[in-house]
Specification:
Length: 452
């Protein structure tokens, strides 16, 4: 068992180095995800990094799709879709996300833990090293480990900030004198320390105590969710392997405790599904190796739903999952239609306050308006602002021709109509914004006049 004493409970967890088919697959999945994680803020598409989550300026980018502060509702909807997807995924596949795709687990188990195994050796050697007095070997191993941990934490902190403040700004902070970007420099140091403390000391407590998703498992999982589970009806009564084990009706579990020794959260899966289990599948690999050695079928520990383990009922997706999937589908349709209708330029036209209409010479009437065009793209645009009704005239008081990238332009103008065309007190006025010979945005408001 990995734990030594209550007082030293936190720093006494020494999971044995896992191995096996699932672990090898996890390594490849993790490396692919790490590549994606480190590439997204630094690779550019259409002049924007692949993913940007700038909460401070409410600017978000997802693979070429730019969301400005005006699109915050779309971002909120995208987050809702992500949350429903995670719920749906969890109801069907349990905590698979935690063990196989969560950045915390990937960094902890596939980066920091592997470095620890490489420098300090497997669980027993780590225990021995920690117990021994400080000598040259211990100083060297501990020093090397913590220097590498700090360097990796520094890389993670920079990548994290590149997601939040953009890789361009991060590059500026790094390349220019520190005193010009003191807050940026402090942020890099602070996040480096936070990541270092998390991966060097806090470790699995993030998953077992801090993470709110982990705490939600009890609510989300049901008897049909697939989770890493011990097939107790096959494994019990457990007992050390003896020559006459078949005669004494022992179960398949030989009580070797390997499944407990490899567990990164220090639990015994044979006690049933537990909130601390992150579905990393290390215990499946460990037990499979034992089953192969003793000539029993594999998957004494495997991906099972409770109904199968308890009543041997075959796996089927539950009604709850279909319900969540239907909600997810509906929200995705709404989101797609909003994205489809979304304009590159958002135009708002408001009547100038304090004015209703002006009767002019030449039998004309005018209304005064303010208009604002917001450019939601990362390219500058030359634009033309005009009325949809070609009989209308526009007289600018404040004109503009250029929309800066991710910026806005304001115009103030009179819309002038001939009195002979005015049949009602209140009529519609529709305006168009033209860029490169195409209408890219429209806005409508009301026009007031005294009919003849
Ligand atoms: S690894 Fe398998 S056989 Fe060994 S204790 Fe765990 S469940 Fe039993
Ligand atoms: S019980 Fe098994 S799957 Fe769950 S965290 Fe421990 S090793 Fe991973």
């Amino acid at each position: 068992m990995q734990r030594k004493s209550k007082a030293k409970d936190r720093d006494a967890l020494y999971p044995k180095k896992p191995s096996g088919k699932l672990y090898t697959r996890r390594i490849w999945v993790s490396y692919a995800l790490l590549l994606l994680l480190f590439a997204c803020p630094f690779v550019k598409l259409n002049g924007e990094q692949l993913v940007l989550l700038n909460f401070l300026e409410r600017k978000f980018v997802f693979f070429g799709l730019l969301f400005t502060p005006q699109d915050f509702y779309l971002f909120a909807l995208a987050m809702l879709i992500f949350a429903i997807f995670i719920v749906c995924f969890t109801v069907v596949l349990g905590r698979l996300w935690c063990g196989w795709a969560c950045p915390q687990t990937i960094f902890m188990e596939m980066v920091f833990r592997r470095i620890e195994y490489w420098i300090e050796g497997d669980a027993n050697k780590q225990k021995k090293l920690n117990a021994q007095n400080w000598n040259g070997e211990k100083f060297f191993k501990k020093g090397l480990k913590h220097i590498i941990f700090l360097l990796i934490s520094f890389c993670i902190a920079n990548t994290f900030l590149a997601y939040i403040i953009s890789s361009d700004l991060l590059f500026t902070i790094i390349t220019e004198p520190i005193k010009q970007h003191l807050s940026g420099f402090i942020s890099i140091c602070l996040f480096t320390i936070i990541f270092y403390l998390v991966f060097a000391y806090v470790r699995e407590v993030v998953c077992t105590v801090i993470c709110p998703y982990g705490r939600l498992q009890g609510v989300l999982l049901d008897n049909q969710s697939l989770v890493v589970a011990y097939d107790f009806s096959r494994g019990e009564p457990r007992g050390r392997l003896q020559k006459d084990s078949f005669i004494t009706n022992k179960g398949d579990c030989v009580d070797c405790s390997l499944c407990v020794q490899v567990c990164p959260t220090g639990i015994d899966i044979r006690k049933g599904t537990q909130a601390e289990c992150i579905n990393c599948t290390a215990c499946i690999d460990a037990c499979d190796e034992v089953m192969i050695k003793i000539g029993r079928p594999q998957r004494l520990i495997g991906f099972y739903n409770q109904e199968f383990v308890q009543d041997r009922k075959p796996y089927k997706i539950g009604l709850k999952s279909y319900g969540y999937a239907a909600v997810l589908f509906l929200v995705m349709i709404v989101f797609s239609s909003l994205i489809y209708k979304r304009e590159d330029v958002q135009t708002t036209v408001l009547r100038a306050s304090g004015t209703l209409f002006q009767v002019r010479k030449n039998k004309e009437t005018s209304n005064l308006y303010n208009a604002e065009m917001i450019n939601k793209t990362n390219r500058e645009m030359k634009f033309l602002f005009r009325s949809k009704d070609r009989d209308d005239k526009i007289e600018f008081i404040q004109a503009a021709e250029v929309l800066p990238k991710e910026g806005s332009a304001q115009v103030t103008f009179f819309l002038i109509r001939k009195n002979e065309t005015i049949k009602e007190y209140k009529t519609d006025a529709v305006f168009e914004v033209w860029v490169d010979g195409k209408v890219i945005s429209e806005a409508s408001t009301s026009f007031f006049a005294q009919p003849e």
